[in-house]
C-alpha cells in the first residue's frame, strides 16, 4: 500500500473521532488518539523505505512521480504543522476549577427556588416600586434669567462694558468688539417634588433665587412656567406652583421616625440627568452647626447627591418624602459620601405657611444665644459635660426680659427638649408658634431655675431694614464677639460687638479697623448689633460719636464729630 493510501485510509477512519472530541471539549489536544495514530501512520507508511525506493533510482523517476513528490512537499508543511503541533497555552488546573464553580453558581442563580438572593430581590423590588411611584412627582427646574443687550470689548483682559469703553477710545487691532444679544439664559438647574395634585412644588430657595423665569419639566417632558408662591432663606426652602392637570403629589412622611441605618432613596436631575435614582442609608440625624442655614438640623445620608439634585426628594422605602436634598460636603464640588437633606417635618411647616400666608411665621424671645463650651462651663464651675446655650444678651422690651431671663443664664431645655447649642436654641424658639408659652429651664449661678416665657413673633421686615441701614447708611458691619476673642481681650461673655468690615466709602473708613471690639458709644453699652446701630444713629443726630474700642494691644477712645 502506497504512502498516500495509508494516510487517506487511516485519517478517514479516525476523522469521526476527531470531530467528536472537538464538539465535546472545545479543544483538541496534541496527544489525542487521532493525531497520534496519524503521526505513526505517516512515519511508518511514508518515511520508512519501501520496495519502490529500493528498486528505483531518484534520477530515474517518472514525471508522475516528480509531480507527486512536488505536491507532497507543498502540502506537507501546513499539514505537518497541524498534525505535529499541539496547543501552546492549555488551561491550568486553577482555571478549570473556576469554570466548574462558575457553572455551578450559574445553575444556582437560575434556580427559581434559590433562597440566597430572596432578601436582596425583595429590596430591589422595593427600590423599583419607589422609583415608579415617584417618577411623575419629581420634576426638573430650570432657572432662567433675562440678559440685556450689551456691547463689550474682548481681549486678554476680559470684556469691557460699552459704558466704560467710551472713555478708552477706539479698540486696538485684535480687540474687536462683540455684541451680546439680549434674551433668556439658563442660570441654573435643580430638582423639585410635586406635593399636591393642584400643582404645588417644594424645592430649595437657592434653586429659584434670582430667576426671571422658572421652567418646570415633568417626567413626560412637558414644560410649564412656574409661579413662586414663597421662599424662606432661613431653611433654604421655596414653594412653586404650575397650572397643570392630571398631577399626582408625593406624600410627606415623618422624618422624626428615621433612624441611622435606614435605607433612603434620592431622586433628581444631577448634571441635568433627569429622573436619576440613587440609594443609601441615613448616616446621621439632627446634623446641625454646618453653616448652611440659620436653622441647621439636617438628615445626613450617603445616597449620591450632586449638583442638580438640590430640591429633589429623599424618600423612605414606603415612597414617602422624608427630606429635601439641599447640600453636600465636598472638597471637589462633587459627591463624596456626605450629603444633607432638610427634614420633612421642617418642610411641612414651611410649606403650609408659604401656601396659606406667603411667608413663614417664627417665634423669638429676644436673646442672643451662644453655645456653652467646655471651657466656659469650667469657668462657671459647671460639670464638663453640661450642654446648653449661654444668654449673651437680652433685648429690652421683648419676651425674655419680660419673663426675667438675664445675661449669663445658661439655658438647658425648652419645653423639656434639650438645648445643646446656639443653633438648637434658635431652632427651638423659631419653630414655636408666636403667642405660645414655653417652659425654659436654665442655670443661674449654677442653680437650676425655671421660667415660663411667652414667645413673640419674629419681625423679618424689621430685621432686614436694620441690616440694610447698617450696610448702606453706616457702611460698617458688626457682629457678636467670638468666644476666643472675648477670652483674648479679657471680656465678659456677651460684652461688646466686633467690627466685621468697613466700607471704603464709610465715614468710619480708616478710623475703625476690622477686628476691634466696640464696648460703648457715648457712654451706652453696645452689646448687640441693634444697640450699636441705635447708638450710632443717635450720635450722628447729635453730631458727635465717642466710641470705646478694645483690641489685642489696648483700650482706646475714638471721637468722631460732624458725621
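-> sequence recovered:
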Amino acid at each position: 500500500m502506497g504512502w498516500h493510501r495509508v494516510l487517506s485510509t487511516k485519517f478517514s477512519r479516525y476523522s469521526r473521532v476527531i470531530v467528536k472530541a472537538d464538539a465535546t471539549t472545545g479543544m483538541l489536544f496534541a496527544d489525542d488518539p487521532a493525531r497520534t495514530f496519524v503521526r505513526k501512520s505517516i512515519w511508518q507508511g511514508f518515511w520508512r523505505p519501501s520496495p519502490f525506493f529500493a528498486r528505483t533510482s531518484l534520477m530515474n523517476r517518472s514525471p508522475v512521480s516528480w509531480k507527486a513528490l512536488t505536491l507532497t512537499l507543498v502540502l506537507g508543511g501546513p499539514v505537518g504543522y497541524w498534525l505535529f503541533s499541539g496547543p501552546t497555552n492549555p488551561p491550568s488546573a486553577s482555571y478549570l476549577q473556576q469554570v466548574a464553580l462558575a457553572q455551578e453558581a450559574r445553575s444556582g442563580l437560575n434556580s427559581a427556588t434559590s433562597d440566597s438572593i430572596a432578601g436582596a430581590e425583595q429590596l430591589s423590588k422595593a427600590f423599583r416600586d419607589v422609583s415608579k411611584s415617584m417618577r411623575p412627582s419629581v420634576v426638573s427646574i430650570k432657572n432662567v434669567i433675562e440678559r440685556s443687550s450689551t456691547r463689550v470689548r474682548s481681549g486678554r483682559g476680559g470684556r469691557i462694558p460699552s459704558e466704560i469703553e467710551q472713555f478708552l477710545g477706539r479698540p486696538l487691532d485684535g480687540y474687536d468688539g462683540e455684541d451680546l444679544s439680549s434674551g433668556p439664559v439658563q442660570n441654573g438647574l435643580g430638582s423639585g417634588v410635586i406635593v399636591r395634585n393642584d400643582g404645588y412644588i417644594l424645592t430649595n430657595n437657592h434653586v429659584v433665587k434670582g430667576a426671571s423665569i422658572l421652567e418646570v419639566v415633568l417626567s413626560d417632558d412637558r414644560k410649564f412656567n412656574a409661579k413662586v408662591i414663597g421662599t424662606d432663606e432661613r431653611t433654604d426652602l421655596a414653594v412653586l406652583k404650575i397650572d397643570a392637570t392630571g398631577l399626582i403629589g408625593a406624600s410627606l412622611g415623618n422624618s422624626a421616625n428615621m433612624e441611622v441605618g435606614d435605607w433612603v432613596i434620592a431622586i433628581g436631575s444631577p448634571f441635568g440627568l433627569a429622573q436619576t435614582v440613587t440609594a443609601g442609608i441615613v448616616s446621621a440625624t439632627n446634623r446641625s452647626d454646618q453653616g448652611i442655614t440659620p436653622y441647621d438640623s439636617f438628615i445626613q445620608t450617603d445616597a449620591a447627591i450632586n449638583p442638580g439634585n438640590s430640591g429633589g426628594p429623599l424618600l423612605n422605602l414606603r415612597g414617602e418624602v422624608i427630606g429635601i436634598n439641599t447640600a453636600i460636603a465636598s472638597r471637589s464640588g462633587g459627591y463624596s459620601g456626605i450629603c444633607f437633606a432638610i427634614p420633612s417635618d421642617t418642610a411641612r411647616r414651611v410649606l403650609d405657611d408659604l401656601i396659606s400666608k406667603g411667608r413663614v411665621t417664627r417665634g423669638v424671645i429676644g436673646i442672643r444665644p451662644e453655645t456653652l463650651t467646655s471651657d466656659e462651663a469650667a469657668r462657671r464651675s459647671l460639670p464638663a459635660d453640661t450642654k446648653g446655650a449661654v444668654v449673651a444678651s437680652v433685648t429690652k422690651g421683648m419676651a425674655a426680659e419680660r419673663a426675667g431671663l438675664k445675661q449669663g443664664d445658661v439655658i438647658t431645655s425648652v419645653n423639656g427638649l434639650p438645648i445643646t447649642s446656639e443653633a438648637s436654641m434658635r431652632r427651638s424658639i423659631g419653630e414655636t408658634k408666636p403667642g405660645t408659652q414655653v417652659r425654659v429651664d436654665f442655670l443661674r449661678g449654677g442653680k437650676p431655675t425655671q421660667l415660663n416665657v411667652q414667645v413673640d413673633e419674629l419681625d423679618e421686615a424689621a430685621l432686614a431694614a436694620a441690616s440694610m441701614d447698617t450696610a448702606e447708611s453706616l457702611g460698617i458691619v458688626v457682629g457678636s464677639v467670638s468666644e476666643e476673642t472675648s477670652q483674648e481681650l479679657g471680656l465678659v461673655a456677651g460684652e461688646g460687638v466686633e467690627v466685621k468690615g468697613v466700607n471704603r466709602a464709610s465715614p468710619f473708613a480708616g478710623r475703625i479697623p476690622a477686628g476691634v471690639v466696640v464696648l460703648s458709644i457715648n457712654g451706652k453699652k453696645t452689646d448687640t448689633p441693634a444697640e450699636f446701630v441705635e447708638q450710632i444713629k443717635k450720635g450722628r443726630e447729635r453730631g458727635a460719636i465717642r466710641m470705646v474700642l478694645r483690641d489685642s494691644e489696648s483700650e482706646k477712645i475714638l471721637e468722631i464729630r460732624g458725621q
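The first strand starts at residue 138 and ends at 147.
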